[in-house]
TrEMBL record:
This is Pyrimidine/purine nucleoside phosphorylase. The keyword Membrane does not apply. It holds the Pfam family Ppnp. PANTHER family: PYRIMIDINE/PURINE NUCLEOSIDE PHOSPHORYLASE, PYRIMIDINE_PURINE NUCLEOSIDE PHOSPHORYLASE. InterPro entries: Ppnp (IPR009664), RmlC-like_jellyroll (IPR014710), RmlC_Cupin_sf (IPR011051). The keyword Glycosyltransferase applies. Signal peptide: none annotated. One of its GO terms (cellular component) is cytosol. Its EC number is 2.4.2.1, 2.4.2.2. The gene is ppnP. Catalyzes the phosphorolysis of diverse nucleosides, yielding D-ribose 1-phosphate and the respective free bases. Can use uridine, adenosine, guanosine, cytidine, thymidine, inosine and xanthosine as substrates. Also catalyzes the reverse reactions. It comes from the Bacteria. It comes from Sporolactobacillus laevolacticus DSM 442.
Amino acid sequence: MDTLANVSVVKKANVYFDGKVTSRTVISANEERITLGVMMPGRYEFETADKEHMELLAGKLEVLLPKSEAWMTIEEGETFDIPAHTKFQITAVELSDYCCSYIK
């Protein structure tokens, strides 16, 4: 899906890692939370509260998921899921544009 219809946008940005990762929170008509963001090149560790579904809209990522020893490459148009209550690592190989859906 290229567009999100009938949504509300939280004006305040989510800013992480000294501004190297930023996103905006979008709330869908059925109250689902989504973030649209950008990652500058670099390595980052994130922690989840909810299950997350990540879609890479542009760029290239290397991802190390919980309980995995192998990094996987994610390219434009690809997705991956992260379990709730875990930590995972991402290396943004290049400037990357992403959409993250939070699943309760």
